[in-house]
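Researcher: Next entry in the queue.
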Amino acid sequence: MKKDISRRNFLKILGGGAVATAAVMTGCKSKSDSKAVEEYKKQVEPPTDKMTYRTNPKTGDKVSILGYGMMRLPSKTENKDDYDQDMINRQIDYALEHGLNYIDTSPVYCQGKSERCTGIALSRHKRSEYFIATKLSNFHPSTQSREASIGMYKNSLKELQVDYLDYYLLHAIGGGMDEFNRRYVDNGIMDFLMAEREAGRIRNLGFSFHGKQEVFDEVLAMNDKYHWDFVQIELNYLDWDYANEINGSNVDASYLYAELQKKGIPAVIMEPLLGGRLANLPQYLATELKSHAPERSVASWAFRYAGTPEGVLTVLSGMTYMEHLKDNLLSYCPLEPLTEEEQRFLDKDVAERIVGLENIPCNDCKYCMPCPYGIDIPAIFVHYNKCKNDGTLPRLKMDDEYFKLRRNYLIGLDRAVPRMRQADHCIGCGQCEPHCPQNIRIPRELQKISQFVEDLKQNKTVSGEG
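Model: Structure for this entry, 466 residues:
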């Protein structure tokens, strides 16, 4: 291979993306292959000076189109709550070195540890190098009094080791106006937050939205009073036109974005990958994406989609591993906006077929956790969806591969979820359901999966899917 081999041609030869390529390369033996790998590694390392920035029209901030979502932090051990501060520091360092400057967290992320971990990592850098976003996550009634909500706000400043917040959000509005008023209006918190913005301790005030359209419309109409500086919405090529079809309680991203555009309010984007679902497509769809652009990862299509609209300020990604961070930086250093043809391809050819899969719309956000009875709700749904996407759900005993698929599903489930944390231990208390941004009827879905698994264990004919 030539020394100046292009990234595109290199990946065409190998027939895969960056992750697949790395796996292939671990087995390379020849000197010529090793030399090619070194050339390839140099080319896929994200550049440090090519980040795409968007300008906040209200403040003039130059914000990186890629934002770091601190809700899926790396762990040191198999205990997911044992967070690896050294790795968090390294990843934040790397992100800032490559031009990323927007970091998003919340008092409730990572079992309440995200703000502290984020604050430790960022405190090692100049305050002018980054914009920090966090939220008033006063979901529980015990946190909704004026005193408790102000206490949460002040604790965020303490944990993040800052004396002002660049972006502050009312967290996950959308359940109903009674809830909105109880959390933010009746207790006087909106007056308090506007005073904090006036004093400069909050630079931008906004809200994140999951839920009912009428709530979004009513809160957005309060712009004349509260002057929203930005709004965080879920936007990806599945939710653009199909959010309501997948779940009747959700609102299509095309509507949310258009309403913000009418008022000139910048959009911050969450869930560009739908909790990883758009990075882990069924193999036939992933292969089709690869055939269109062999040098791009499957995830990069979703990130380019989310970043293309001009009213988008930044796109958040929960990047647990360094390879996630590098791949996303490659998508945005610089951003190559989608062509009209590529957008039609994702909107129609890809999104329509994903909708037809009828998966459980879990984004693995873990808002439903912890379960008081120890159920690992997201892991159960992720395992089920993966098998469904891969076409490996065991169905009818008359199928040629039924017994092989049955065995693989049960073994895979035990590996993904400890037995004491599986669906059959759900008692249907329903404490999880109000916290789900996707409005999944969680106990019902767990009961269906529990019955599906029990039928497999009893070796009964499986007439449907969980």
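Model: The mean pLDDT is 87.
Researcher: Noted, moving on.
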